[in-house]
Design a protein that fits this description.
Blueprint lengths: L4 H18 L4 H17 L6 H21 L3 E5 L4 E5 L11 E2 L5 H5 L8 E2 L1
Antiparallel strand pairs: 1-2, 3-4
Helix pairs in contact: 1-2, 1-3
């Protein structure tokens, strides 16, 4: 609907800016997130129901907030006798939840290995 055009474009830009900030330096994550965001907006391109558009705008805002406040990335560095994980926490990250969910590196994960367990800190 034309009345929401500015709001939809603003939401689209905001979520893409958040994606660029959160996944900076990670080409695969940037491309994957870009694809998912674009797909989501494309699926609802012809939506005309006002209530549905409002809900989708709210969802976009919530997704952007979650990305910005709850997603961190780390760089895995394997040494001879140990493994280091370097994590850069942005000032916007809400670190109240102490549950860390480690992910295997992409090469291992692509081979169909099971997901790792949650680690309670």
């Amino acid at each position: 609907m034309a009345a929401f055009r500015k709001e939809v474009f603003a939401a689209f830009r905001r979520i893409h800016r958040t994606r660029e900030k959160v996944f900076a330096g990670d080409k695969e994550a940037l491309a994957g997130a870009r694809s998912q965001i674009n797909k989501g907006f494309r699926e609802h391109k012809r939506e005309t129901e006002v209530d549905k558009i409002k809900k989708l705008l709210l969802l976009s805002e919530e997704v952007s907030d979650v990305l910005e406040t709850q997603i961190v990335q780390g760089v895995l560095k394997e040494e001879q006798d140990h493994v280091n994980l370097a994590i850069h926490l942005r000032s916007s990250v809400n670190f109240n939840d102490k549950t860390l969910i480690p992910l295997k590196n992409r090469k291992t994960a692509q081979k169909g290995s099971p997901p790792e367990e949650k680690i309670e800190s």
